[in-house]
Amino acid sequence: MSTTDDTVIAVRGLKKSYGVSANRFEVLDGLDLTIPQGDITCILGRSGCGKSTLLKCICGLEDVDGGEIDGDTDDLGYVFQEDRLLNWKTVEDNIRIALESNDIPSEEHDDRIQHYLELVGLAENATDYPLQLSGGMRQRVSIARALAVEPSILLMDEPFSALDEITARELREKFLEIITELDQSVLFVTHNATEAAFLASRIVVFEHEPPAAIERTIDNDLPYPRDIDSKEVQELKREIITHI
Ligand SMILES: Nc1ncnc2c1ncn2[C@@H]1O[C@H](COP(=O)(O)OP(=O)(O)OP(=O)(O)O)[C@@H](O)[C@H]1O
Ligand SMILES: [Mg+2]
User: Fold this and answer.
1) pLDDT tens-place string over residues 66-78
2) Nearest C-alpha to atom 17 of ligand 1 is from which residue?
3) What pLDDT is stored for residue 1 in this prediction?
4) Is the Cβ atom of 52 under 6 angstroms away from ligand 1?
5) What's 211's domain CATH number?
């Protein structure tokens, strides 16, 4: 199975379990999912239903037990649910390490670091160490780190959940601008139904309990730019909530 022109990642029959023998626990048991080119696919589902496990399998952080993941998984960026910053490196060096490991030419590093730190509102904190930052600031550094690489595909695991609502609103708007400009494809996990209604072109709701299965897929055809407070976004939010 390979991807088609308008699909950047195709997951087929994905299986993943944790533990052994009697303690074996199936988190993914034959899951199918595609990430369409240029789309923002939002995944929602109850805590523990397998969302982060799916993202970790796609990016290769977890070995899978079966099934296929096709697509250009080398050109992929990840915002983890936890920020995973190196506390002994400055903010700018945390981003630089990601640029180096993705073979971004060194002459571009300073500009990209500055640009993406400005975007997340942390230009003044470039030489701080992560332990000097609040949880929401650390999360914004991890967002800047993933965006700075400018990957074709972004996997984002609750990236805005640690932010106050005003900062989250600003970042969602900027995020939409960037991914439109760079024509990126996104798989985005959130617990926030309003955020999904605002950002997503497609919303996938998982069943309550693992193994993860798709309870409902909702296409979101509302034209961009959207107003998060609009009647249409709020109506869609209510529809999403009925399926969670
Ligand atoms: N490394 C691990 N070892 C054992 N069990 C794990 C491991 N990682 C996750 N699990 C279990 O797998 C299930 C799915 O976890 P996962 O982190 O994918 O959930 P999630 O949908 O992302 O939840 P949340 O919304 O709380 O982040 C949970 O029951 C969890 O306890
Ligand atoms: Mg999770």
Assistant:
1) 999 999 888 999 9
2) 52
3) 40
4) yes
5) 3.40.50.300
